[in-house]
Amino acid sequence: MKNLEPSRDCAGGGESAPTWDHEWLWQSAAVFAAKAHSGLTTPGTDDPYFSHSARVALLISAVFRCHDEELLAAAHLHDVLEKTEVRSLDLSARFGDRVAEWVEWLSKDEKGGRDTYWDRLPAAPWQARLIKMADALDHLNGLTEYRPARLRAARKALKLANSHEPEIERAAKILRQAIAAQEASPNH
After folding, report:
1. Which is nearest to 81 in space by CA: 68, 67, 94?
2. Angle at Cα 57 formed by Cα 146 and Cα 69, nearest 5°?
């Protein structure tokens, strides 16, 4: 590993670099999410559902270049409230209030479902919006039968780029390119 420090444009400010004996929060979150999603598969595939959560975290780190450990933890956990029996209080106790809050923003509730979900997301903290943009980007690589719905969701996620954090601007550029590539594809 070359650089263990959080990127300057993504760190919460004043944070020190982790040490080698430090169990990073995102590692604990990955294990927790993998266990919580155990037995679940990605719709239409045999892929373990956790592979989606892991890809979302990897997109944030490798593609959007954001290495903040709370944000990466929330990325791993982004579907646990919606798809498992895990409660927000569990996340808050184990991973902190900020991680739990971001995951809550990314969870559809039973009452409002998808309609209120997309209506409230633009007001979410930029970290939650960044995770949603990575989520949409990952879904664009799914099964072609889901492509029209995934493109609609990706276009909605692109509208979440309503602020000027460098991470959001990078994510918007990449998501915009991915949408254009999908729309230009002969299978569109």
Report:
1. 94
2. 155
Candidates 133, 127, 171; CA nearest to 11 is: 127
Enumerate the β-bridge partners of residue 48.
41
| Rounded-to-integer distance, Cα 19 and Cα 132, Å | 30
Q: How far apart are CA 43 and CA 47, in angstroms?
A: 8
Are 135 and 78 in contact, with CB atoms under 8 Å apart? yes
- Tokens representing 69 are 């450990």
Q: Which two tokens stand for residue 53?
A: 């959560």
SS3 86: coil
Q: What is the pLDDT of residue 112?
A: 55
Q: What is the pTM of this model?
A: 0.86
| CA distances in angstroms from 49 to 5, 80, 88, listed in the order given | 30, 10, 20
Residue 9 DSSP code: T
pLDDT digits (tens, 9 = 90+) for 112-147: 566 689 999 999 999 999 999 999 999 998 888 888
Instruction: In the chain, count H helices and then E strands.
Output: 10, 0
Q: Do residues 70 and 98 lie in contact, with contact meaning Cβ atoms separated by under 8 Å? A: yes
Burial of 156 (0-12, 13-18, 19+ CB in 10 A): middle
- Encoding tokens for residue 114? 């998808």
Alpha-carbon gap, residue 187 to 59, rounded angstroms: 24
